[in-house]
Amino acid sequence: MNFLALRRQTLTRNLKAAGADAALVTASVNVTYLTGFTGDSSYLVLTPKAAVLVTDPRYEAQVLEECPDVGRDGAVDLHVRPHNRTTPEAAAEVLTKAGARAVAVEASRLTVAELEGLRGLAPKAEWVPVKGLVEALRAVKDPSEVEHIRAAVKVAERGFRMFAATLREADTEKDMADALDGWLRRAGSRGSPFPPIVAVGDRGARPHAVPSPDRPLGEGSKLLVDWGAETAGGYKADITRTLKSPFLPTPSRRNKFERAGYELEEVYAVVLAAQDAALATIRAGVPAREVDAAARQVIDGSKFAGCFTHGLGHGIGLEVHEAPRVRENSDDVLEAGMVITVEPGIYIPGEDGGPGWGGVRIEDDVLVTRDGHTRLTTLSRDLSVAGGGS
């Protein structure tokens, strides 16, 4: 089945409801979704009669490699602009030649300056800003996308296993983040789709901790790692695990860098129960906020009430964060085919400038099905021990 063609056909059918007879897709990620082309500086023009990919000579060979519909029975026409013309200029020429009168553009992707520039290039056209023009389609994955995400998850897990087996006591957070990026590439990723979060000890209380060059693994009793991978087609994985360090610091060093008072196993058990509660609610037709509420109820019903400080999750696909939003103020409703993260956490910072205890987060990538869910992540959720290198 040609899923790329189906996506373009669906978008074309939706144009009438948006009050437009053509669409100009300018966001690179959305061009990828509709054509398979993973480069940048290229636009897609869609009308009821044609689809035209506007690019430049640098990408001509790449387009022919990545886009099976280009040149095939006219499914997607290729317009290669000369070096002395800009992409907006070339796209405006294509739209004018097609006789487009009302052109839908991506309201959340174009800047005001870019929109004003387009108006100047095609003054006879009406430019119609539409929010979520392509993103609404991307929220529900087709079978080919699910397989791409499965592949990204496998790569992320393979790279993480190699990373976890080679950790050393003297490795700093930055050392570990750099090493993880390398292992992910060796495992087959195009690179890290976002900078890995590697947090030792009390620094795990920062959900988006920036890896420090001054905090070695040996100065904490636990390690929080949030990482991902990206397939050649641009699809992402996003996973978090919290590990017990085999290099436990002495009590004096722990008191310096990591507040005592809670057992890691105790905190971890609450977070795992929260994730299980959320997973049990997932199925098509369930409001996303109810999934968040199921996890939050477990944590807020424990001694760690108020320590879950972010939304439960988000959609994942060509972008790390995309629709739907899985949080308590979300209006989204789950549909079969959505792929979401489920990532409850407990974060215990310091008091009065003293060291904090740290944090625990468990994150998995999950496919929503009609009657439930499928967990795409296969890594164990048992509290594991990090390290093994000398």
Structure notes:
The protein has 11 helices and 17 strands. With 390 residues, it is an alpha/beta fold. It has 2 domains: 3-138, Creatinase/prolidase N-terminal domain (Creatine Amidinohydrolase, Chain A, domain 1, 3-Layer(aba) Sandwich); 143-385, Creatinase/methionine aminopeptidase superfamily (Creatine Amidinohydrolase), CATH 3.90.230.10. Helix 5 links the parallel strand 5 (102-106) and strand 6. Helix 10 (264-281) runs antiparallel to helix 11 (288-300). The N and C termini lie far apart (50 Å).
Please outline what is shown here:
With 390 residues, the chain is α/β, with parallel strands linked by helices. 33% of the residues lie in helices and 20% in strands. It starts with a helix and ends in a 5-residue tail after the last strand.
Question: Which SSEs are present, and which pair or pack?
Answer:
Blueprint: H1 3-14, E1 22-25, H2 28-35, E2 43-46, E3 51-55, H3 60-66, E4 77-80, H4 87-98, E5 102-106, H5 112-121, E6 126-130, H6 135-138, H7 143-164, H8 173-187, E7 197-200, E8 222-230, E9 236-244, H9 251-257, H10 264-281, H11 288-300, E10 313-315, E11 322-326, E12 339-342, E13 345-348, E14 358-361, E15 364-368, E16 373-375, E17 384-385
Parallel strand pairs: 1-5, 3-4, 5-6, 9-17
Antiparallel strand pairs: 1-2, 2-3, 7-8, 8-9, 10-11, 12-15, 13-14, 15-16
Helix pairs in contact: 7-8, 10-11
